[in-house]
Design the sequence.
């Protein structure tokens, strides 16, 4: 049998090694795994003060997400200019998923209320999820001699001094709801704007103003304690949180509806896998029994859906509130 010497095998081994190297170079590169997210704290920008409806919901959801993600979720309250200050900060944040804006109905109002904004809500953000709708409740000072909408309307028309209603600021949903109500009753009530609803509550309970529309969430404490009287809710149907309180619609002003809402958005350009993860994880959090129970007890109605549905909802809301702003003559420039 013919044998091969080591020297004779060397050229063959070299050729095989070269072929292997060539084939390795032609092989497709392995698909890179996406970087894990999150690997650091996530910031929730809430463009309103602590204690408001948006703040309370953001904190409830944020606590659950922090447990799920294994990273802190920090609520960053940035109030000012009817929500525009915090929205502008979020619009200019890095689009890496670590900054999330809790948008509200104020973002649907601002485009018609302000002639110039430093951001474009439609193009500077990627909608993630409409989290909840929040009916407003009309609450009155406990010393006001009325107990229902008919009595309030009659008292407002007969009062020698015009009744006043507070709000969290010019152009906010509770301001425009108050203007819509004042116009519908023909009572010509006086609007008293504040820098956020907590300050308005202080004056309302002290009797310095007569009434105010606000989200049910922050109003529940004062209603349960008897410091404020609930007169009517602003949704077309009664709220499960206040089932014994009639709607404005059923109390003599047919078709009256003015609800608030909160949702989550990220700076435009945030990677879709991150947006998808946030969407899925928030849906899971909202489905947990304790969160559902907490939301229901405060009057917040869960309104989950897809990012595309949230985007369409924002367009419809922007159109609806533009009419309310025009009719009220409100402007904030």
Sequence:
């Amino acid at each position: 049998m013919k044998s091969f010497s080591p020297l004779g095998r060397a050229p063959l081994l070299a050729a095989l090694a070269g072929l292997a190297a060539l084939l390795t170079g032609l092989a497709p590169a392995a698909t890179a795994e996406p970087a894990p997210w999150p690997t650091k704290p996530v910031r929730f920008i809430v463009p309103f003060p602590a204690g408001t409806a948006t703040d309370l919901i953001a904190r409830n959801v944020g606590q659950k997400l922090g447990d799920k993600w294994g990273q802190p979720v920090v609520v960053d309250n940035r109030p000012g200019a009817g929500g525009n200050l915090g929205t502008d900060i979020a619009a200019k944040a890095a689009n890496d998923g670590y900054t999330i804006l809790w948008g509200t109905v104020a973002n649907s109002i601002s485009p018609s209320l302000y002639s110039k904004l430093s951001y474009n809500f439609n193009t500077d953000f990627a909608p993630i999820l409409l989290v909840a709708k929040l009916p407003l409740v009309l609450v009155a000072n406990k010393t006001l001699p009325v107990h229902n909408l008919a009595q309030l309307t009659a008292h407002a028309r007969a009062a020698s001094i015009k009744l006043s209603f507070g709000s969290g600021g010019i152009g906010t949903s509770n301001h425009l709801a108050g203007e819509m109500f004042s116009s519908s009753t023909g009572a010509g009530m006086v609007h008293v704007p504040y820098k956020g609803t907590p300050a308005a509550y202080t004056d309302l309970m002290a009797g310095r103003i007569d009434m105010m529309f606000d989200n049910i969430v922050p109003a529940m404490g004062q209603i349960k304690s008897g410091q404020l009287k609930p007169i009517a809710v602003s949704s077309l149907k009664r709220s499960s949180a206040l089932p014994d309180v009639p709607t404005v619609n059923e109390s003599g002003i047919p078709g009256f509806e003015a609800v608030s809402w909160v949702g989550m958005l990220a700076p435009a350009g945030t990677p879709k896998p991150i947006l998808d993860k946030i969407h899925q994880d928030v849906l899971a959090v909202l489905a947990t029994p304790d969160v559902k129970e907490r939301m229901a007890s405060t009057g917040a109605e869960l309104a989950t859906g897809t990012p595309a549905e949230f985007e369409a909802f924002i367009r419809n809301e922007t159109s609806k509130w533009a009419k309310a702003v025009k009719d009220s003559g409100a402007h904030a420039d």
Notes: The chain has eleven helices and ten strands.
